[in-house]
Design goal:
- The structure holds 2 protein chains of 2 kinds.
- Chain A has one domain: Orthogonal Bundle (ABC transporter involved in vitamin B12 uptake, BtuC).
- By secondary structure, chain A is mostly helical.
- Chain A is built from 14 helices and no strands.
- Chain B has a domain of 229 residues.
- In chain B, α12 runs antiparallel to α13.
- The longest helix of chain B is centred in the middle third of the chain and has 30 residues.
- Chain B is globular, with a radius of gyration of 23 Å.
- At the A-B interface, α4, α11, α13 and α14 of A face β1, α6, α11 and α13 of B.
């Protein structure tokens, strides 16, 4: 019997990192920057938080930890780390007009490298005596759920998550409102649709690209932090984050650039990511599970194709996506 | 009056080759010095000795030289494969999947036809299967791009993971022993379907890629196809006015790209690793994109770029093992070098001058 009450919360917990990543990437892409560095940025966001909280846990060894600091230090470190990555991407692609695909791929190589290197070597580098990076004390603060999280099916389905999960949903709703109902949001979309037109209308293209990409990176970085601190109980293991960064980019297409749709879609993707555990395996064939894992990608591909077939204008990617803007070039 | 920015940026005329090379070389040196600094900061090692370790890690013994040269060949091969599509401004980032599907097709032939065909026939059948699989992986995104302008970057990205999940599906189907979750060395006792060795284990892939380098240079520079690719890359409108069938060029070029990637996959499985894992391509499909781009699509510069990246990769792994640090250190150094090279392009394409004090004119 399919146990929905145990399945749904796990799907949500899988989906939240994707939601952070896709909201960040949607903001970025709306400015015309196709940031393929998101997987790297999410690694950096995760490991920066881990490093911050590692030092805090080492400093308070034995004595009780201050809950506020235990939460704020990793969050600030994570935001700072992904902000630096976002700035680097902007400097290279906006100021120096480098190719966005190449820069993004280089950022992913670099970011995943940074994550795995510090994750694997932090203990050796700091000369501390712990056997592995297990920030379980910090993780407890991140996992504090809403009251009633354990009571009944309603509590389990909706109230049982750590606070970052609710932050992700609020950010996604906020981003959706910002893009569709505010003037700066309109300007941002204009920059992504046609940077030269926006420039002629007096919109500061460089400023919008920088802000959207940096804020987008910071949001995506939080996805990495949520994964380590909440989902993985504060235990960093190399490559555990896997290909979720690319899945977040897939989610952007799947939701046709809409952060509010992304809330439900991320849960759907999270569910697809783990559904292989719940689905029956015909004839005991374990291999079929690997085919189930293909579902998110196949579905995204179909959406991509259908969207390009229908040619509905509001469903198209931003027209200037992937192009650098240089005022004097036409 | 509107405030003017401090710098004036304008497009340069094409730099003379010598000067451009000088700038690139200088930046590369700067990048290497910076990498040394980062290494020293993180590990406390003397930078000179770090470079010593890097060089000995890549070229220290004749075996290491062989492995390095073979890795350069494979990376170079994938970079060559993605180049025609890039020159056409078709942003194929699916080389990872196209190579992997080549590995998978080769594996399928080697396992299912092991005792049904003589060895030479088996190798030829695996090669053809790999080329067809890669061609299909290249054809799909190109077809949708040509017909309905479907975004090729996102399409090829998804195809990577479809290839990866297909590979993990078949790995479990063919796992040895049951429940191991991996295939191990295929046909270890019979060596059926293994590429023969010429001289030593490293020579054959290197030779094949060397031939491919020459072929790709001629194809891109002197053939009609190469010319059409260049025109489509510059402007699709110009191309269709000139009577070039843009759709057909896009599809033909991507089929070629995909098939060549799969050829590298065939070499990996049949000639190098003799196995199939989901990480057998090891992100080289993505690295190849950067190699091709930073070499300005020139096959001969790609030799140097691949050599540089492979040397840093193998050398940094050596540094990491010597200090029992994590091997991802190599990725950090690769990233830094790439950032420097990416940034350089700007100063080669554009001229930056400080604005003259505007008081005189006023």
């Amino acid at each position: 019997m399919f146990d929905f009450v145990s399945f749904f919360p796990r799907a949500v917990m899988q989906g939240i990192p994707l939601l952070f990543g896709s909201t960040g990437e949607i903001l970025t892409e709306k400015s015309g920057n196709l940031n393929l560095g998101i997987p790297g940025i999410m690694y950096v966001g995760g490991i920066s938080g881990v490093i911050g909280s590692f030092f805090y846990e080492q400093a308070t060894k034995g004595s009780a930890m201050n809950g506020f600091l235990a939460v704020m230090i990793p969050i600030l470190c994570s935001l700072l780390g992904s902000l630096l990555m976002g700035l680097l991407y902007c400097f290279l692609t906006v100021t120096l007009r480098a190719n966005q695909n190449v820069t993004g791929l280089a950022m992913t190589t670099f970011g995943v490298g940074v994550g795995n290197f510090f994750g694997g070597s932090l203990i050796k580098l700091t000369g501390s005596e712990v056997p592995s990076i297990a920030l379980s004390n910090t993780s407890l603060f991140f996992k504090v759920g809403l009251p009633g999280g354990n009571a009944g099916w309603f509590g389990q389905l909706f109230l049982s998550y750590g606070f970052l999960a609710y932050v992700a949903i609020i950010i996604a709703l906020g981003a959706s409102y910002f893009l569709n109902h505010t003037r700066p949001g309109l300007h941002l979309r204009a920059v992504g649709e046609s940077a030269s037109t926006a420039d002629a209308a007096g919109i500061n293209v460089t400023k919008y690209k920088y802000l959207a990409t940096c804020i987008g990176s910071m949001i995506a970085g939080l996805g990495g932090l949520y994964y380590v601190m909440d989902y993985a109980n504060g235990v960093w293991s190399n490559n555990a984050f896997g290909d979720r960064g690319w899945l977040a980019i897939a989610l952007v297409i799947f939701t046709i650039w809409r952060p509010n749709v992304s809330i439900l879609a991320s849960i759907l993707f999270g569910g697809l990511y783990i559904i292989n555990i719940y689905l029956p395996t015909p004839g005991g064939q374990m291999a079929v599970k690997e085919l189930y894992k293909m579902l998110p990608y196949v579905i995204t591909l179909l959406v991509l194709i259908v969207v390009s077939l229908r040619k509905k204008r509001e469903d198209q990617p931003p027209a200037f996506l992937g192009l650098s803007y240089f005022r004097e070039e036409r | 009056m509107r405030k003017q920015s401090l710098f004036h940026i304008s497009k340069r005329d094409t730099l003379p080759l010598g000067k451009a090379l000088l700038i690139r070389g200088g930046i590369l040196l700067l990048a290497l010095v910076f990498c040394g600094l980062v290494t020293t900061l993180l590990t406390g090692q003397n930078p000179i000795s770090v470079y010593g370790t890097i060089l000995s890690g890549a070229f220290g013994t004749s075996r290491r030289i062989g492995v390095t040269a073979r890795s350069v060949a494979i990376l170079l091969g994938i970079s060559l494969a993605v180049t025609p599509a890039f020159k056409m401004r078709f942003w194929n980032i699916g080389a990872e999947g196209q190579t992997l599907i080549g590995c998978l097709a080769t594996t399928a032939c080697m396992i299912t036809l092991e005792d049904k065909l003589p060895n030479a026939a088996l190798i030829i059948v695996s090669l053809i299967a790999a080329l067809l699989a890669g061609a299909l992986w290249g054809f799909l995104p190109a077809f949708f791009k040509a017909k309905w302008n479907t975004n090729e970057t996102l399409f090829t990205l998804m195809m990577n993971y479809i290839a990866m999940q297909l590979a993990s599906f078949f790995i479990i189907v063919w796992e040895v022993p049951k429940g191991a979750g991996k295939i191990g060395i295929i046909n270890q006792s019979t060596r059926a379907g293994w590429l023969p060795e010429i001289g030593n284990a490293y020579m054959l892939p290197i030779l094949i890629v060397a031939i491919m380098t020459g072929f790709m240079y001629i194809y891109l520079t002197y053939s009609k196809h190469g010319y059409e690719i260049a025109v489509v890359g510059e402007s699709q409108r110009t191309a269709s006015y000139a009577g070039i069938k843009v759709d057909r060029v896009i599809i033909r070029t991507m089929v070629l790209s995909g098939a060549l990637c799969a050829l590298m996959g065939f070499l990996l499985t049949s000639g190098v690793d003799h196995t199939l894992t989901t990480t057998i391509v090891d992100s080289r499909g993505f690295t190849a994109v950067m190699v091709s781009w930073m070499s300005k699509f020139n096959p001969f510069i790609m030799i140097a770029s691949s050599l540089l990246l492979v040397t840093m990769d193998r050398g940094a792994s050596e540094v990491a093992s010597a200090l029992s640090l994590n091997h991802s250190f190599a990725d950090i150094l690769t990233g830094i070098i790439l950032f420097f090279i990416i940034a350089t392009e700007f100063f080669i394409t554009y001229k930056v001058t400080l604005r003259k004090n505007s008081k005189k004119e006023a």
